[in-house]
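Lab notebook page, bench 4
Experiment: in silico fold of construct C2
Operator: M.H.
Input chain length: 306 residues
Purpose: comparison with the prior construct
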Amino acid sequence: MQLRRLDPLANAGPYQRLSKSPVKSFSLTEAQYERIKAQRPDLLVSEGDSAVIGHPFRDLLEVHYAFPDVEAFRDRFEAMFNRVVGASSKAEAPRGLVIAFRDRPNRPVAETLFWGLALDEGQQWVEMNLVAVPEQPEPAETVGDAYSLRDVSAADFEALAAIDAEATGLPPLTADGVRSILTDARLVRLAAREGESQPAGYVSLRTDPGGWGVIEALAVRSGAAASLRRPLIDWCIAWLRNNGGRRVRMRVAIDDSAAIAALREAGFTPGETGLDYTRTVDPAEVTAKVDERKAHGTVIKFGDWR
């Protein structure tokens, strides 16, 4: 009798292999991966079991990567990253690019590479999780005592962009940025109070494998936050539970204490944490920043000391 090790990924496709890579910051859904592969193959750079992928979303170029080991990451990331970013433009990603960094064990290696590519540390974030969501009735198209929900039409693009800008502090979304939200989500709804011309908030929801429901975005104008945020969270939980979300997660900035408090009240607990690395996609701006960093030498980081 001969024993041999079974490879659990022996019959897996490219997406499954990338999602299980040892060295990665990779959170694309399979639907997003297949859409990029079909519609924007120039944003998918792969070499063997390694890949760097650009995902245009909300006027950002989200960059995801997966490598089989640290050596491949160290040797090939820069060239593959530059090919992906070179296939995009400031017109496609006016808010710049972002890597939602999750690869804690390999952060020292990653930071060395990111520094040379002019990436900056952005906001820290935490994924808030609600597990074992109980069954509940399908929610009505109303929220709280005063708000109703409606689908997003082309006439609502500017209103949604304005809400998003107020909630994030970023420039207003372009029409393509709004379309990317509608393309990726299973459901997008605007929340509006009767008699008011402008909506007060919006939600974007999707479902992931494993029974996960994801609140991709929950943005509320500051004037309506006290009366709308928590009821809107409850509505999202109910909708996701009735559409395959036995558990729910939402990623929020660590310094967004109001959102974290509302999610805790709803039963969410902190899960994975991470850090955004950001940069422009404009070549001239990148060259200027790289030259400036070279002039100041190399950064060596030990813990929180530089």
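Observations: Residues 133-245 form a domain with the Aminopeptidase fold (CATH 3.40.630.30). Confidence is low (pLDDT under 50) at residues 302-306.
Next step: discuss at group meeting.
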